[in-house]
Design a protein that fits this description.
single chain, little secondary structure, 2 helices, 14% helix, elongated
Length: 70
């Protein structure tokens, strides 16, 4: 796959097609591209929800651990 984001200065653009795509049907799209230059703030509150358990600690612990002799 080839993906390039450019800011063209003219109506013509030369595109190099990889050898593995030769003699195959390919799709070439030209679309406007925009992105938000400001970084979104990280919301760490969602991570806190992951650590909430409905189970008691006693229910998680191994009750019997039988070690067998070799």
């Amino acid at each position: 796959m080839v993906r390039e984001i450019i800011k063209p200065k003219s109506e013509e653009y030369i595109l190099r097609i990889p050898k593995e795509y030769l003699n195959q049907e390919i799709e070439i799209l030209v679309l406007p591209f925009s992105y938000n230059k400001t970084k979104p703030k990280k919301d760490l509150s969602k991570l806190l929800d992951v650590s909430v358990w409905d189970t008691k600690e006693e229910d998680i612990k191994v009750q019997n651990w039988n070690i067998q002799e070799f």
